[in-house]
Structure formats: C-alpha cells, structure tokens
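Exam revision sheet. Question 4 asks you to relate a sequence to its structure. Input first:
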Amino acid sequence: MSDTLEAPALPKVETKGGVVAYLTLDGAIKAADFYKQAFAAEQATAYPPDDKGRTMHIHLYINGSSVMLGDFYEEHGYAKVAPQGFTMQLIVDDIHAWFDRAVAAGCQVVVPPQKMFWGDTWGQVSDPFGVAWAFNQAADA
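Answer key, structure tokens:
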C-alpha cells in the first residue's frame, strides 16, 4: 500500500450475510488457498499482492457467507498480532464431512464433534494461521 499509488478497482461482487468477518492474517493469500481446501471456500475477488507478497483484500464465500481477509501492514498501523478472542462458527448439515475435510487439510483438532448439552453436535479446530473454527450441526439435521 503506497500513499501515491491507487489500488486497482475490483469487480463488483455480492456480499453474502448481514455481518461479514474480516480476518487480518500474516499470509492472507496462503490462508485463502488453505480455506479453499479446508472449508471449500470460493474466491470472489482479490487484490494482487504487493512487492512483499501481501494483499490488502481477499473476498471468499464459505458455507453461503462472505469472509474477507487481508495482510498486516505495519507501516500503516496494522501491527502483527495473533488471532484471539473470536471463533468462526460454521452451521452445517454434515458436521463430520466438514470437520474431517478441515483436519485433512491441516487444521488441528481442539474439540472433536460430539453431542453437546444444548442438543446439537459441535466440534472445533484451529487452522495453521491461529484462527479457531467451530462446526455446529442442529440436533434435527
């Protein structure tokens, strides 16, 4: 991101969902590629990388919703910090298929899928970028 250069215009894409998570990660391009494998993400659009391999914006569709990512830009006040204090929650119809795909792609198991006290089946993983992802399958699914 330069103060003198303008970023290229991106094509207009549909934002899916009323609230969109925007993840700032160290290696957003690698994370987007990983999310394609782990969570069947589809890339809607992305800014090209800068000379350091960073991108300011990637828009993905995951499980019917939008998720956006970008890299840290320390020179613009966005220092690198580990993801913390949130979990990306996926509401799914086949928890074992989603969970197993994420683990096969490289996510670490935090809580294996199990019937929870509220009646649903729930499990959680952590991705290689430090983001927590949980899966919830309704009891009646």
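Marking note for examiners. The longest helix spans residues 28-39.
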